[in-house]
Write a structure and sequence with these properties.
alpha+beta
């Protein structure tokens, strides 16, 4: 996963983006959010996305647009970055299924993770994520003076 610098090249410190208000549950000692703790639903997938990328994504209701933090400012997502982040989230979720000790539960969770990679499931995840706490923003919250 690529990290984004929060300081511009001129060396001046900038405030980081507002973090998502919900803290992800972390696996003991790993620093990686526990993606297995969420339900097998579109909303659960949205919560997984926010757990991983909540500090880098926002959804502006008035503009009906996803915004991505580029390290300096919030930019409208014109390159479908949000789609790539959603797919990455599901792939991380699938990878975590290897930790499940019950063979039947592991098989069920892997099956759900595979289904979650469909275009329909990705759209559902993003639709649910639009309203997650800390993700929805108003156009008025942005400084229009560069």
């Amino acid at each position: 996963m690529t990290t984004v610098s929060e300081n511009p090249p001129n060396g001046k410190k900038r405030k980081p983006p507002r973090p998502a208000k919900k803290s992800p549950k972390l696996r003991a000692g790993s620093g990686v959010p526990d993606l297995l703790c969420y339900p097998h639903t579109g909303t659960g997938n949205a919560e997984r996305l926010v757990a991983i990328f909540g500090d880098r994504i926002r959804y502006c209701v008035e503009w009906k647009t996803w915004l991505i933090w580029d390290g300096t400012r919030w930019k409208p997502d014109r390159s479908r970055e949000i789609q790539r982040l959603a797919k990455y989230t599901i792939r991380m979720f699938y990878a975590m299924t290897a930790r499940i000790t019950s063979p039947s539960q592991q098989k069920e969770t892997q099956s759900y993770a595979r289904l979650s990679e469909s275009a329909k499931s990705i759209r559902a995840m993003l639709a649910c994520a639009e309203s997650e706490k800390g993700i929805t923003v108003s156009a008025g919250e942005f400084d229009r003076d560069p």
